[in-house]
Amino acid sequence: MTPRLLVLIALPLTLVGPLAHAQTARTPWGSPDLQGTWSNATLTPLQRPADLKDKEFFTPAEAKAYVKQRLAAQSGDQNIEQDKTSGNVGSYNDAWMDRGNDIVPTRRTSLIVEPKNGRVPPFTPEAQRQFERDVAYAAAHPADTPEDRYLTERCIGFGGGHAPMLPEPYNNNYYIVQTPDYVTIMAELNHETRIIPIDGRAHLPNRVTQWVGDSRGHWEGDTLVVETTNQKPNRHYYGVQMLDSLVSDKFKVVERFTRTARDQIRYTATVSDPVFTAPWTVEIFMHPQNGQMVEYACHEGNYGLRGLLSATREEERKAAEGKR
Amino acid sequence: MMRSTFVLLAVCALFATNSHAQSARASDIPRLASGKPNFSGVWQASTTANWNLLTHGASAGPPEYGALLATPPGYGIVDGDAIPYLPAAAEQQQRNYAARWKEDPEVKCFMPGVPRANYMPYPLQIFHSDDRMLVAYQFAGAARIVNFGAPQPSAIDSWMGISNARWDGDTLVVDVTGFNGQAWLDRAGNFAGPALHVVERYAFAGPDAIDYSATLDDPKTFSRPWSIHFRLFRNPDSHAHLMEFKCVPFTEELLYGDVYKRPKK
């Protein structure tokens, strides 16, 4: 009797909201089902472009114009044409790219929703000094060894395979599998697999750090909440949208995954790190994909890093000869 | 004589199948909501096959590392204890063996391929839900998505191939193709080419052990298909899960050290 009464009360509630509770796809053990292949590609940049000042949202007409402009402006094919005279060999052409064809459905002007200016908060004065020392060192030692280079160039990590999962220029696909004890997210980019225990076990000891940190999850209602700590401090963590930054040993990210519609996961991530004067939060939407995940064998085919180091040695040799 | 041998073999095969079936009583093993076996867990082989698929004695590693990198002895995992190479492939294996401390893709932290990934001396973790499976390997962060839908041809050649699964009773059969032919099968230079077609079979031998077998067919490298078999054991620790073994940075000095700029002494 009581269960039937509950159903009667619950029924009207299920009819409100973008995705009613009863419609949420569920696993056999009752968790919301996030499984499948998803993409977080978007034309919306991490940080609001300076010329948009305090504009938090586009109107539909502005959004349309912005999308058109972004698609044209970022065409790699066009850049290759331009670069022919500059001596710059350019980058991949459009066929390689996967930046999406639209902005986020909220029409927000940046992925960052907090702070309200849509920008990564400034460093603390101490962190700023550290950052400037790092930048000065990098200018003096552009490519002595791989450790002077970005993690992307070394095939160690990209922005998408760890918290916060920020869209990259290509391969923004993710494959999610759930069990009662785990949520596992495999990023196509660099074949990064995030193994997230959701059974309440403790984090790794503080002294153990990993390039992808250490993630623990739990369900809060129908939202998967994932906390990541134990991050290996490094300057090149966030990926292509923020190539140079700082990550301290107090870095912490809290991500939230909610299946807000059959064809949508709303993803937010709040980064707290004492190098910044405030925490910051991104909001990104993931959409289902039908294609096959492919193997991104980055390190196995990394001719670029050798080319970069040996070209730098050649430049140094020529410069030394010039001085003689 | 021929006939009696055949009958004897058939009886042995029956016996083997029967005892095999008894080793994992259907009610003992973890199952999914669908009723199929649930292979989720942290698993690891307990063989020396990653050093050499065939039966081998102990041998020295690079001299500067003493016993640390020596090859431990072990029985092989190949049925018949021989790999049926075609003549040119047998020569290639010898060249690989001679160059093994430099050219084994494992040295360079390249993805290990299939089936090698399953018998490396490191854990793998299977995430299995009703119609999905992800196999994550600790070494080099390699991973495979196992497809339970309509079989798909591989979109690209790859190190880990494309895995299409089907059930044969309680045995999971995974068909793996789409290889790039660059992976080795062990540290002794055994290898297969891009035409490799692997059929893996996963069957519980009790709740905490999987009898694993694989048939390797590559008519450009081998004169006939051949098989390996070994057991995967479950790590029962409640905290067991794969930790990160991102070996790429450990190989940079080796791969690019000749183009480093070093501080002047």
Short structural description:
With 324 residues, chain A is an alpha+beta fold. Helices cover 22% and strands 21% of the residues of chain A. Helices cover 19% and strands 23% of the residues of chain B.
Write out key terms for the chains shown:
heterodimer, A: 324 residues, alpha+beta, 10-stranded antiparallel beta sheet, 5 helices, 21% strand, globular, B: 265 residues, 9-stranded mixed beta barrel, 9 strands, disordered N terminus
In whole angstroms, the N-to-C terminal distance of chain A is 96 Å
Helix content of chain B: 10-25%
Low-confidence stretches of chain A: 1-20
Principal-axes shape call of chain B: globular
> Strand-and-helix sequence of chain B, N→C?
HEHHHEEEEEEEEH
Number of strands of chain B: 9
Q: Classify the oligomer.
A: heterodimer
Strand order of the largest sheet of chain B: 1-2-3-4-5-6-7-8-9
Provide a count of the helices of chain A: 5
